[in-house]
Write a structure and sequence with these properties.
With about 600 residues, the protein is an alpha+beta fold. Helix content is about 55%, strand content about 10%. Strands 3, 4, 5, 6, 7, 10 and 11 form a 7-stranded mixed beta sheet that branches. A two-stranded antiparallel ribbon has the order 1-2. Strands 8-9 form a two-stranded antiparallel ribbon. The protein is globular. The protein starts with 7 loop residues before the first helix and ends in a 9-residue tail after the last helix. The model has no long low-confidence stretch (mean pLDDT about 95).
Length: about 600
């Protein structure tokens, strides 16, 4: 059975040493986000995750949610509701929500650390409160005053939860194809009719009310994505005065049977003239929904990080305990019948890959989380714009790369167990199954790649990339004379220059052939992710070496960085070569020749 112990030492290193969040948060007006407060919050969240949520992870997988076809009710696994009640009582649902609506008002850069621990402890359970945070953001930025007054406080308190209802049977990524209708009513509300699928936490027994944010079309809506509006559709009807009425005409029609996250309710939701309220302007629903979706995309990236971290922790422990064969250079434990498998180079390769991707990925994700705060609260308008540009650029990298790396790491960890990893007893196969969904929901890896390449880089003319390249150049210039860091600074500067040139070459070729963008997108996403991690690993070593931390900690950072630069960063060579090959090898084969 897999266990979970929050990696608080590395979390604190990322926050306090590398990112130095205390002065950042102070400059943004978060007066109550000092180190003592932040550390206390981290400790208490770790306790909740280790003692309450993690023990339910296997139960949720084995039992799953139960669906009553007669009533449409969904029952969560044993212990999930009690855990949710403790979560609400502890104020965790509103940790980074606005104070005026009952939240604690802590920075999003802290909330994202807590999400990592919660996801690692129990991914299926974490999905129930996940989208409430996005619903709060969407309502806070786009809702009318009365909607904020009525819906935000119970969502922040956790007495209600939220969902995001986009996908339909015929409509996934291309939201312009959606058919759900919204008919205006005499009282100013709308009657929402249609079917949505793959709705996370669409129905459950954790709260009395669920607030669905639903994309639908008004009768006069233009065709395509320009004709989409966003509506609040509660499970229980809610009046403009906040009064809760009878059951709304929305019901769960089925619960999906999934590869993983069995304890999470993935629902088909049927809306049959359900009462709803318009959010924002008619036909401008995607703008409000993307406020929610971008928050969710960062959150899903954190899910990949959390699962990879838990998988690595368990695989490392197993590799230290499992005795099998001898080291190639001679016995390391002569008194034992065999050496631990940790001495084997291939086992170390897999473990170091997990360590390099998780610890580097943690800094990438936490930095993105802090940019949410900077983009909203920085005093200087230019600083806000740069933070927003960089956040937009990094969001598809965090979502796409961290979830794919989460899959890679959970499979590496399973492999470390050998045949024991494939059976349910050790819990590794559950982590691998659970991780698979993270590359799919909130936009597949291919969608993240197109967003990064097409919109964030080409359409926005690389605004975010320029900010990140500036960070790399500042770091490299600062440490140009540091002999001890030369092995990292020199290749990092070279990769940054290659990144810039690669971007230019794609843009030039795309001017003649638009297929270049789609053909390059996947490889460009990962080239970007690997260079971004190279920056964070170089910076980690510089910070660790200058700190008062124990030599074993410094050695861990230094040697892992060497492994990353020599064993993982070279993956960029393959991605660059694939980009240079252009779209011909992808598109030249006739469609009817694919099956011959």
């Amino acid at each position: 059975m897999s266990t979970y112990h929050a990696p608080l030492t590395d979390i604190r290193f990322a926050l306090h040493d590398v990112l130095q969040v205390e002065p950042l948060f102070a400059s943004l007006g978060f007066e109550d986000a000092g180190r003592e407060t932040l550390d206390a919050v981290l400790d208490e969240c770790a306790r909740l995750c280790e003692t309450v949520l993690a023990p339910l992870n296997r139960i949720g997988d084995e039992v799953g949610v139960r669906f009553d076809k007669a009533t449409g009710a969904v029952t969560t696994p044993t212990g999930f509701k009690d855990a949710y009640d403790q979560f609400v009582e502890g104020g965790w649902t509103g940790i980074s929500a606005p104070v005026e609506f009952g939240g604690m008002g802590l920075p999003h850069g802290i909330g994202i650390c807590l999400e990592e621990m919660i996801d690692a402890a129990n991914l299926a359970w974490s999905n129930f409160p996940l989208l409430s945070h996005g619903a709060v953001n969407a309502l806070h930025h786009h809702g009318e005053d009365w909607q904020k007054d009525v819906f935000l406080k119970p969502l922040v308190a956790g007495t209600w939860t939220g969902t995001m209802c986009l996908t339909e049977p015929q409509c996934g990524t291309d939201l312009g194809l959606l058919k759900t209708r919204a008919e205006p009513q005499a009282d100013g509300s709308y009657a929402i009719t249609g079917t949505k699928i793959f709705i996370t936490a669409g129905e459950h027994d954790l709260t009395d009310n669920i607030i669905h944010l639903v994309l639908a079309r008004l009768p006069d809506a233009p065709e395509g994505s320009r004709g989409i509006s966003l509506f609040i559709v509660p499970k229980m009807q809610v009046g403009r005065d906040g009064s809760v009425g009878t059951r709304n005409a929305v019901r769960c029609g089925a619960v999906e049977h999934k590869m993983g996250i069995h304890g999470s309710a993935t629902c088909v939701m049927n809306f049959d003239g359900a009462q709803g309220y318009l959010i924002g302007q008619p036909h401008k629903g995607l703008m409000a929904m993307f406020t929610m979706m971008n928050t969710a995309r960062l959150g899903v990236g954190i899910q990949g990080l959390g699962l990879a971290t838990r998988a690595y922790e368990n695989a490392l422990r197993y590799a230290r305990e499992r005795l099998q064969s001898r080291a190639l250079s001679g016995a390391k434990l002569p008194s034992k019948p065999a050496d631990p498998i940790l001495v084997q180079p291939d086992v170390r390769r897999m473990l170091l890959t997990c360590k390099a991707l998780t610890e580097g990925g943690r800094l990438l994700a936490y930095h993105a989380g802090s940019l949410v705060d900077s983009a909203a609260h920085a005093q200087d308008p230019l600083a806000r714009k740069q933070a927003d540009d960089l956040l937009g650029f990094l969001t598809p990298i965090v979502k796409g790369c961290l979830t794919e790396w989460g899959n890679e790491c959970t499979y590496h960890a399973l492999q470390c167990y050998g045949g024991h990893g494939y059976i349910a007893e050790h819990g590794m196969e559950q982590l691998a199954r659970d991780a698979r969904i993270t590359t799919l929901y909130e936009g597949t890896t291919g969608i993240q790649a197109l967003d990064l390449m097409g919109r964030k880089t080409m359409q926005l003319q690389g605004a975010g990339l320029r900010v990140f390249l500036g960070m790399i150049e500042t770091f490299c210039t600062t440490h140009a004379e540091d002999v001890a860091l030369a092995e990292f600074v020199v290749p990092l500067r070279a990769k940054a220059a290659e990144w810039q040139q690669l971007t230019r070459s794609i843009a030039e070729r795309a001017a003649a052939d638009p297929e270049e963008i789609g053909a390059a997108a996947h490889d460009y996403l990962f080239f970007s992710g690997y260079v971004a991690l190279a920056y964070w690993w170089a910076r980690s070593v510089a910070v660790a070496e200058a700190s008062a931390r124990p030599e074993t900690f410094k050695a861990g950072k230094r040697e892992t960085a060497r492994f990353y630069f020599t064993r993982i960063l070279p993956r960029t060579l393959g991605h660059a070569a694939a980009i240079a090959s252009g779209p011909a090898s992808l598109l030249s084969i006739p469609d009817d020749a694919l099956d011959s």
